[in-house]
Amino acid sequence: MSTLATNSRAKFDYDILKIYEAGIVLSGQEVKSVRGGNVSLKGAYATLKAGEVWLLNAHISPYKKAGALPSYDPTRSRKLLLRAREIKELMGKLEAERLTLVPLSVYTRGRRLKVELGLGRGRKKYEKREVIKKRAVDREIREKLKRKA
User: Fold this and answer.
1) I need a surface site. Which of 59, 63, 70, 119 has the fewest CB within 10 A?
2) Residue 143 burial by CB count (10 A; 0-12/13-18/19+): exposed, middle or buried?
């Protein structure tokens, strides 16, 4: 299992409550491009439309060796594959609790490409400041312990 892309801002901007693993529907040249690391999850999110989960705003660059693709859109919507039980669970939580589905990473599992989705609640600005302070304090403690050892 190798990680091909991560969304570093997701865990900072959101409190992740639950994590889901989803398959992703891609064309052949997109698969090759993703395996080459040409994918960005910056600003990407997932949504529910008509009982299906869709990944929006994820940027997958065209595969360099595929030649010119005149109608290719790198940020098109891509369908995500989840179990029906998980989709029903998400429907309830997204509407009732005002949560967001955020892609955390894209990775391989065997021959398949998977997307790790996090069900999260957005953080306020003051909560983000607290996270930064806590990270700095933890870093100082680690450094002091390292110096003593």
Assistant:
1) 70
2) exposed
Structure token pair of residue 87: 């989709």
User: CA-CA distance, 20 to 91, in Å (whole number)?
Assistant: 14
The whole-number pLDDT of residue 10 equals: 79
User: How much is the pTM?
Assistant: 0.78
pLDDT tens, residue by residue, 17-71: 899 999 999 888 888 889 988 898 988 889 999 889 999 999 998 888 877 778 8
38 HSE (CA, 13 A, CB side): 14
**Structural domains of the chain ordered from first start:** 3-123 (2.40.280.10)
pLDDT per position as a tens digit, 103-112 = 999 999 988 9
